[in-house]
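Weekly structure sync, notes
Attendees: PL (lead), two postdocs, one rotation student
Agenda item 3: pending single-chain targets
PL asked that the sequence for the first pending target be pasted directly into the notes so everyone works from the same version. It is reproduced below exactly as submitted, 306 residues in total.
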Amino acid sequence: MIDYNGIIPYEMSDPMKIVDIRPTLASWPKRIWDWSELPEEFHPSIADWRSQGMEPGNVTYIPRVHQGGSDEEYATAWWKDEVMIQTSKDDEVETVVLKSGTVPSLVYEHQLLKCKIILPRKDGGTMEFGFQQVKEEQLRPVINLLLGRPGERPFPTDHPDHSFDWLLGKTLMYHPTILCYRFDDKINDNIWFKSSLRILPFIARRRPRPEYFFAVMDKGLVVIDRNFYRKRLFYFNWSDIDSIKIEPNQWRGGPGVNVVGKSGIVAQVPLIKDNIEPMSEFLYRVKKLGIRGVWIEDDISFLDKK
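Predicted structure, written out during the meeting:
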């Protein structure tokens, strides 16, 4: 009997086609406790940090997601106030080192057990790495440093006061809004609203309506898009925001609000009629903050033309 170590031919007539039948656990992030556990291709880039005293526990190896056919594998590491992200694909390793406080914007996405972090590149593109949500805690120092926070800082688990208790019972947004405090300590202003599902009515009846939340914080703006099984958070530093505008024809011919980052990160949120005026009032309050370099367009005169 041949041992395929969990990877077996799909069918004997096509021996080159294989199926990975290992359990999902094989794709989960693995904290490194001994340097021998880290694949060899990731060693050269971290050699300098190792020589300075970095322990293997600061490194997390993220195998490829074999069920999804992903080709990328990742290794993240943190040392002092820097994060290293290595991406291995097609026998090549790309290494990016980021200093805490220099990441202009960041997108965090969570769908069921899958998480993904998207970062802007200096050339205008983006890079990303994914991981299983149940292992997120071991990536906490990396996420904290990318958001400009101390690496060892615990993730917030609730709102610091009861000012958002009104979300309980009427929305699924209460717990996603707690993720704002990964970015900064206080929500100074906010707006929450629901939109409509642009799908067939008999399907829409079975799904919760999409919800959106904008949080004004001292460091910047957080936009939360919660839709069915997925939540996505856009963390914008004020210095990265180029414009925030209500557009009359942004979302499938309907109105919406665009938050455009100089780094290339863009959040697009659809608006329905009931949401347009409250969003305009919210943007007016943000405009009054007088944040330098941020163009805010709260004009909704296009409604009078309809």
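Discussion points:
- The chain has a mean pLDDT of 87.
- The chain has five helices and 18 strands.
Action: rotation student to compare against the earlier draft before next sync.
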